[in-house]
Amino acid sequence: MNQSRRHFLRGVGGAVLALPGLESLAGAAGTLAAQPQLRMAHFYVPIGVVRRGFFPGEANDIIPEGNLGNVMKSLGKQDPHYSVRPLDELTLTMQPLEEVKSQINLITGMDRTFQQGTDVHAQCASCYLSSAKPYTIQGSAWPLDRTLDHIVADHIGQGTPFRTLEFSCNSHKDNKESIYFDNISWYGTGHLAPSIRDPRKMYQRLFSTQETARYRDITSLVLEDARSLQKDLGKGDRDKFSEYFESIRSIETQIQRLESMKAELSQVDFPEPAEAYLPRGDYIRLMGDLMVTALQTGLTNVATFMVGPERWDTPYLFDGLFDKPRSHHQMSHNQTKEIDDLLKVDRFHMEQYAYLIERMRKIQEADGTTLLDNTLFTYGSGLGDGSTHQYNDLPIIVAGGGKKVRSGQHINMPEGTPLSNLWLTQARLTGLPIETFADSTGQISDLLA
User: Fold this and answer.
1) What is the pLDDT of residues 141-159, one digit of tens each?
2) Domains in the chain: ranges and CATH
3) pTM of the complete model
4) Which residues have C-beta within 8 Å of that of residue 46, sequence separation ≥ 6?
5) Which helix (H) or strand (E) holds 448?
6) Can you tell me the distance from the alpha carbon of 267 to that of 17, in angstroms, rounded to the nearest whole number?
């Protein structure tokens, strides 16, 4: 293991986990809450999975030959009928979750929206958390609307320094694809919530007092100009401008909250990551450690985590798996020849998810529960199979949720169930009083305790 990473983990494991739940940070305003807020985090895997390795009952199915194009309904092999059964024997790809299977739910049979006329991969990540009805969003070729994380953050992120945090493990420097291939979080149609790829930049955003001071200085200047400009506006413009003014004020408020937490956060022995190459697994886990710590310390209640970009042909060196860099996307289109290596990549991604679940499970909160108990941590992809580009029967796992969620189940939804039913269920679990979300048709009742 890289020395910088070993030093980093020693700091996190020895200091952060030894703190008594950081009780002064447990509430929205720094006071101890009787019950911790249920958080939300999404672990996104690009380009789907190899179905025969992930889905129960498909181990002996025929491997798709090459790129079969935009196939939506042809290869979903799950039972089209609704069923709930104990999650007993795990498939090859899911085996890294063996130790935590009593705290997860495998959910199969859910489909997501696809809008004809645009690139298949472009919609995978960008529309994953919005699931808007096709052809209902003006000014967009994608069914892309305000995403679930920001809608939920409007409700549970008001009292945290960062309403949401966006993590990405795309270490590539080349601008291979557009922003739609590399982001799952959006403030609204056409308004990206940009992710941070560099562990050092994320560290500085979370813990650097210099970064906070810069944000404060810039915000103060903008507010000063805004107050001056507002005097010269007519009534109609003043009403419009007030919305802008309040959004800047909210940034100022969040900065003040972050500054008020600095004293407690200074107790966290969290060394700044070194500016050096990290093996692929160490890099993903380092970004994951930063996300877990942000959730643990109350810096945010909502996070998204992309393990890699869609359709990015520049290869990665999957250290320990292969002896040379490989392109995940190119491998997915040659599944008949690359099946064994693709299965290794799928399992590798699942190992990173399992690692983060275990990290959350070991962190005790102020009331004796764990961070995992108080987090809905979802693994998912925008494709059911990377070779066939199918948008139906997506690979979805939900971990955590504690007493609010029934766990240890394989829930197979009826054919045609929209993915947004899960997003509606999760939004309501966090306390958001909404009746529908995007193209949802109802909640997933068997997920509720």
Assistant:
1) 888 899 999 999 999 998 8
2) 39-199+278-447 (3.40.720.10)
3) 0.80
4) 124, 125, 306, 307, 308, 309, 310, 311, 328, 329, 381, 382
5) none
6) 12
